[in-house]
Write a structure and sequence with these properties.
This protein has 5 helices and 34 strands. It is mainly β. The protein is elongated, with a radius of gyration of 25 Å.
Length: 542
Amino acid sequence: MGKDKDARGQRREFLKFAATGAASAAAIGVFSLPSAAAESGAKSKSEIPFFNVRRFGARGDGTTIDTPAINNAIAAAAEAGGGTVFFPAGMYASYSIHLKSNVSLYLESGAAILAASTSLEGTTTGGYDAAEPQGSWEPYQDYGHNHWHNSLIWGEDIHDVAILGPGLIWGKGLSRGHVDDIDLPKTDRPGVGNKAIALKNCRNVILRDFSMLAAGWFAILATGVDNLTIDNLKIDTNRDGMDIDCCRNVRVSNCSVNSPWDDAICPKSSFALGYSRATENVTVNNCYVTGGYQLGTLLDGTFKRLGAEFKHPTGRIKCGTESNGGFKNITISNCVFESCRGFALETVDGALCEDITFTGITMRDVRNSPLFLRLGTRMRGPKDAPVGRLKRVLISNVVSSAALPELCSIVSGVPGHRIEDIKISDVYLQQLGGGTTAMAELNPLEKESEYPEPSMFGGLPSSGFFLRHVKNIEMSNVEIATEQPDARPAFWINDVEGADFFRVNVPRASRAFAMRDVREFRVFGSRKIKETTLEQAAHQEL
């Protein structure tokens, strides 16, 4: 009788859990309702059990360390052949939680997994799992990219796993890797965790519907993960949102990320696996990224602005900086950027970056270049790696307003290595303007091997686009507008071969083009610019 009562209680919990959205996962065979026979120990081939962490001893009171109970529930589910580990409402303080194949976690409304605190100098007993050793390639990427086990939730070499539900993952006790933090532990100390979710060499992973707060160095670090779905997450964090590194077949959709201190959504291609592996076949769509709000105020809906002293928040979508393996077949579409840096596409460590589309984008209050495409020669990786390539990029249907005046959009390779085959269409870029005649005379240093960031060049001699070391670029239906008069040309072009401009519009009384060492140039179909074709222009203005 007692066992039947327990089974009925489990059924009620499951039905409540299914009604909040997990039922859709049943279609892929992750969930099914346990029968009384299953609860009593009988096996049923058609049923996958459902494990409540409280029945394994979790208290959920925010103080008791529930790590053993949570990991025991996961282990039991794995031993049973798979299942769902259920977190009812409560605050579950924990250290490292170990994901396993064929096991899903479900966080009910009102449920939160809390990253438990450690001392600022770490601990030799308890705490988070130790950072696993890396190989000789460790210097090729930062500490945070090199380790996965020192995390709140981690999995390695696993498959068919999910974290689902409308609950919260709160990284309160995690380090974010900033050496000047006085209230968070030092990231490389024993027992210290620095990521909320870390995955390495996994496949068939779903992260859906939950929220994340103050989630450490990375809210999500996925390295070598194939068939990854990240959907409907709200991330309000104190460093990176999600880093998708060396992954294939990735779908990121319907996510909101506030990450003032680092990037929001960031495909990477590091050497952290010990070899070069491209990030490829990726879609990012219907997402909102920002760096403009105080921590926690995206989640609580108050959207409190950061102060004026926080002038250069990050919060953007960026491909890079780690770029050893490459970026291929990537589409970013229908996304909103607000009070953050613009879109960045970077290959500086030898990566092949090709077949990228960026379309249907709105940007407001951009704090540096709205568009930044950079091929560089930092070459942080094996010594024999060749310089990378950046080619076949389509940018379309983009509107940007109120971007800072000193930095225009940038497409820049380095001497001897041009960016190739760029198509930019139906783009409206409104800058604050105010550029001076002195700025118009600038010729920024190349800085081939420096960390890629739009600010690396200092002030720029253009109000719209800075184009250098490019081959075959085409712009159509592009308008540059400035709020204040600007003495700089709309387009500054240097060492460019093959440049077509059709129906471009520039600010009234502004020069359109300043060209140096340009070949095969053409502009036509523009009201304010005389149709011109040039086989070569050593130094010319239009």
